Amino acid sequence: MKKTELTCIRCPIGCAITVTQDDDGKVTDITGNSCPNGYKYAANEVTNPTRIVTTTVRVKGGTLPVVSVKTKGDVPKGKMFECVKAINKMEVSAPVAIGDVIVHDVAGTGVDVVATKNVAKAQA
């Protein structure tokens, strides 16, 4: 039997959660969570950890040199650096709007990368 101590990151409360797994890695008990989101987070974190990736992308011809972006959903934790590497190769042309897809299916994860800020086109 294995016990893992986690701090939940799904909301600002930061519950201290304990996950118990049997010898085969199956989750047998989760305690300390204040809500269902904490339960789900803890179960996933010990069996298949995922993360939202946030970074920036260069903008050509914009009022700002970069635009903030994030993955539209969780990506496997083991693919985070591959995702960042793919995103860092990108450059978009202004204007950019919140929600614009910057990268489709980043690093083969099935998850798109979207803009999280508006960047207007620079006046000539």
Please describe the topology of this protein.
Elements: E1 2-7, E2 16-21, E3 27-31, H1 36-47, E4 50-51, E5 54-60, E6 66-71, E7 75-76, H2 80-88, E8 91-93, E9 101-103, E10 113-115
Parallel strand pairs: 5-8
Antiparallel strand pairs: 1-2, 2-3, 4-7, 5-6, 6-10, 9-10
Question: Which descriptors apply to this entry?
Answer:
10 strands; 124 residues; 2 helices; three-stranded antiparallel sheet; alpha+beta; five-stranded mixed sheet
Write a structural description.
A five-stranded mixed sheet has the order 8-5-6-10-9. It has a three-stranded antiparallel sheet with strand order 1-2-3, covered by helices on one side. The chain has helices at residues 36-47, 80-88; strands at 2-7, 16-21, 27-31, 50-51, 54-60, 66-71, 75-76, 91-93, 101-103, 113-115. 23% of the residues are buried. The chain has 124 residues and is of the alpha+beta class. The protein is built from two helices and ten strands. Helix content is 17%, strand content 35%.
